[in-house]
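Form 7-S
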Amino acid sequence: MISGETWLVGLLGDPVSQSLSPLMQNSAFAARGLDWAYVPLPVTSEHLDDAVRGLVALSFVGANVTTPHKLTVAKLVETDEESVNTLVVRDGRVMGYSTDAAILAELEFRRAAIVGDGGAALAFRAALPDAAHFSRKGTWPPDVADADLVINATSKRDEVIVPLGAGQTLVDLPYPRTATAHAAEAAGARVVDGLDVLVAQGAASFQMWTGVPAPVDVMRSAVRSA
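Output:
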């Protein structure tokens, strides 16, 4: 139950109705016995500045940021990131971070390739500066034959963006799984899907806000059961 003592965190995006983050984070707060609540905050681009300032005015502790605001919000808060998906509010200041690439800490690889050009792609490029990069605005089609890790950071669900095979790992950011992920798995590649990515970035955000280790198993169970 939300009370006047409840600490609030939100999700800024357009749309946010399909997001599993509220279910995941509220399950995590409950598992840790925290009087916290995570609420979806649908906001259009023209009202994003007002929404960010509103987090301070309404005493929010922080927020996540999702499509299409990750690049714009980076210009509105204190950050060194080009793409921001996590906000922390302290003493009237809003600081921006990216946990989008947190899944990389769980993977072993030598050569990486990133496919896409949105906010999430930028976050992975910042984390993997030596990775090959492919996008329709630059080098296309992707050639990932030499990569053992491929990040699909596009929004295309029904089109196989890039073929993979045995010995390669695909990090497929959208959820549910895309045609690219299904084709990769059928060809013998390992697939780390969008729910795995969501849990990794959500766990990192949770610890930033609360200072408490995230209950990763609870978070994973919540999104998988949904």
